[in-house]
Amino acid sequence: MQVIKNYLLKRKYSKKKRINRSVAGDISLFILLALFGIFSAYPLVMTASNAFKPLDELFVFPPTLFPRNATFDNFRDLSELIGNSWIPFSRYFFNTIFVTLLGTVGHVLIASMAAYPLAKYKFPGRNLVFGLVVYSLMFAPQVTATPNYMMISWLGLIDTPWAIILPAIASSLGLYLMKQFMEQIPFELIESAKIDGASEYRIFFQIVMPLVKPAWLTLIILLFQRLWTADGGTYIFSEEWKPLSYALKQIAQGSIERQGTIAAVSFIMMIVPVTFFIFSQSRIVETFSHSGMK
């Protein structure tokens, strides 16, 4: 395994080429990035601000960025509505955790195991299979919504959490990312492991997966964000299987007096994936830079 250790040390201490830029160029680039950052952060700041605005400030035009009289009434109203629900709030929370964990782990495992032979072995139809994977990335979820519903209905999974989990596991984005990342692993590492007597499963789990850690960490982040906010409104109708986002939106819907509650719901659903992304954004940048995706 000395070859593997040398390869890991080489990756760890490899130095990037420094781009020569003037001070004026650095300042201009910083200003440009700051403007784009402010533009991107504005919706997030507005969503967080609306959650603490009283009802009269929510209807002010033009809207204000920050509340003049901050209040927690929106969260108190949401708490009362949740308390009056005939399904315990913990049930909705369990449904979301169940869907998120199972869908994320299943997708990472299946995508990685499918990407490994595509990246490191040659077999008839290999290019065709990968071409279909890339081609599937061109379709928006709205285009495949009807075929997905027909397939899930045919499998008898309507009104079950598997209607959300299985499409997440079968997503082609993870297969593409893992395949592109695994291609950068030298085949000599796999050959040396085989000479040492390692099986394919051991090579995959103890050599390949640790080397592509940024890729599968990125998949975990992306799937977590996607499944955490998935409401499953197209497939789930039973109250006992509705996820948290569906239940909160359903509770908040109603008369105009619940606009503050809707703002509080939006803030709650946003804060978890945004916080998760902030602490792991470096992994996403590293993965996409190595995979060639723009």
Automatic annotation (TrEMBL):
Lineage of the species this protein comes from: Bacteria, Bacillati, Mycoplasmatota, Mollicutes, Acholeplasmatales
Membrane topology of the entry: Multi-pass membrane protein
Domain ABC transmembrane type-1: 93-280
Cell location: Cell membrane
GO cellular component: plasma membrane
Keywords associated with the record: Cell membrane, Membrane, Transmembrane, Transmembrane helix, Transport
The keyword Metal-binding is assigned to this record: no
Family listed: Belongs to the binding-protein-dependent transport system permease family.
Provenance organism: Acholeplasma hippikon
Top-level taxonomic group: Bacteria
Transmembrane stretches, start-end: 21-45, 92-116, 128-150, 162-182, 203-224, 261-279
Main location (coarse class): membrane
Single GO BP term: transmembrane transport
PANTHER family found in the cross-reference section: ABC TRANSPORTER PERMEASE PROTEIN MG189-RELATED-RELATED, BINDING-PROTEIN-DEPENDENT TRANSPORT SYSTEMS INNER MEMBRANE COMPONENT
Record flagged with keyword RNA-binding: no
Alphabetical list of InterPro entries matching this protein: MetI-like, MetI-like_sf
The name this protein goes by in its record: Inner membrane ABC transporter permease protein ycjP
